Amino acid sequence: MSLSADRLREIVSELASRPQHEKVRALIYELLINGLGAKSTELDFECQVTEVHGRIDALLGRTLFEFKSDLRREQRDAESKLPGYLAQREADTGLHFVGVATDGATFIPYELRGGQALSIRGVHYSG
Question: pTM of the full predicted structure?
Answer without folding.
Answer: 0.84
